[in-house]
């Protein structure tokens, strides 16, 4: 049984195993539904292998699972689902992660195509399977742990960044093979080269982050959710180095989620803002909360016409009308 904490009195548990895998960039593509008070969409995370594992690997040690054993024992699982609609990501560069959606006039509560919070079907992935099960030869699969609370996670998959046109420039060798293991290594090599680009190439980096976020999936990943964490694994993968470095997560917030506040403005019009308190951002999207996990991120937000999306960042969002009564802020 997981420990019950009071966020107003107790220190927040930092579950993310950042010393083994560290998020370097997030891309969010979200739908805001004021009728159900739910934010739903997709997040793509780009990782770099953490400093602790690089250090232990160089000395021949392989103890990366030890700190997760207690987490596995304490997990409380929820069912997992798959949404019936795919969402693509296209967004702008920013370094912060707070946003607000405010009504300009009367609230539009119509249910548009971008809102599919009630259209789910059961996933073939069993979230009750113990992610710390002993695998072949007595070894354990590597477990990626993210901070997560008050979220419904629907699906997790690996992103096939090698399918992006022009991405060969980020490989040491442009030769692609059909060997599965080599393709897995190639995908992670691409992400490593992309996240370590020098600062003066940030526009190129942003372009390829966006392109990679739109790449097809190449396999669903096993996952479980607990009170404070999302735990993900790929069968047969036992080290952070071999674990997928680009993953896509479908999820939705809950109306009671404590990272999101649904309220009205001074004129009585509906609005929502994401101050991140009192449990930081883990009830807005699966993330890494420890202070070491500094990253860049992008976001795009769909909402009903009559609302304005405001977000901190370097670029100004430009609203695009997708269809009558629906705006897309890029």
Automatic annotation (TrEMBL):
<protein>
    <submittedName>
        <fullName>Aminopeptidase O (putative)</fullName>
    </submittedName>
</protein>
<dbReference type="GO" id="GO:0070006">
    <property type="term" value="F:metalloaminopeptidase activity"/>
</dbReference>
<dbReference type="GO" id="GO:0005730">
    <property type="term" value="C:nucleolus"/>
</dbReference>
<dbReference type="InterPro" id="IPR033577">
    <property type="entry name" value="AOPep"/>
</dbReference>
<dbReference type="InterPro" id="IPR042097">
    <property type="entry name" value="Aminopeptidase_N-like_N_sf"/>
</dbReference>
């Amino acid at each position: 049984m997981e420990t019950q904490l009071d966020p107003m009195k107790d220190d927040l548990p930092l579950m993310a195993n950042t010393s083994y895998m560290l998020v370097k960039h997030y891309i969010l593509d979200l739908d805001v539904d004021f009728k159900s008070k739910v934010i739903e969409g997709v997040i793509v995370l780009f990782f770099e292998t953490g400093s602790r594992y690089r250090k232990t690997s160089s000395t021949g040690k392989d103890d990366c699972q030890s700190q997760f054993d207690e987490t596995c024992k304490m997990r409380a699982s929820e069912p997992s689902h798959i949404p019936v609609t795919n969402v693509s990501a296209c967004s702008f560069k920013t370094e912060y992660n707070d946003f607000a959606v405010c009504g300009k006039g009367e609230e539009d509560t119509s249910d548009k195509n971008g809102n599919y919070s009630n259209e789910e079907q059961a996933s073939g992935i069993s979230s009750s399977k113990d992610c710390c099960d002993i695998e072949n030869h007595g070894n354990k699969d590597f477990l990626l742990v993210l901070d997560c609370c008050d979220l419904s996670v629907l699906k997790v998959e690996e992103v096939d960044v090698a399918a992006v046109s022009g991405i060969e420039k980020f490989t040491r060798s442009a030769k692609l093979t059909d060997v599965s293991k080599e393709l897995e290594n190639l995908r992670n090599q691409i992400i490593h080269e992309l996240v370590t680009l020098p600062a003066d190439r940030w526009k190129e980096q942003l372009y390829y982050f966006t392109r990679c976020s739109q790449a097809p999936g190449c396999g669903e990943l096993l996952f479980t959710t607990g009170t404070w964490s999302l735990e993900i694994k790929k069968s047969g993968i036992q080290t952070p180095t071999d674990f997928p470095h680009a993953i896509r997560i479908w999820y939705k917030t809950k109306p009671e989620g404590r990272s999101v506040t649904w309220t009205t403005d001074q004129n009585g019009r509906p609005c929502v803002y994401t101050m991140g308190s009192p449990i930081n951002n883990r009830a807005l999207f699966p993330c890494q909360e420890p202070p070491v996990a500094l990253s860049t991120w992008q976001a795009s937000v769909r909402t009903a016409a009559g609302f304005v999306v405001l977000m901190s960042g370097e670029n100004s969002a430009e609203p695009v009308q997708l269809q009558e009564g629906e705006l897309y802020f890029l």
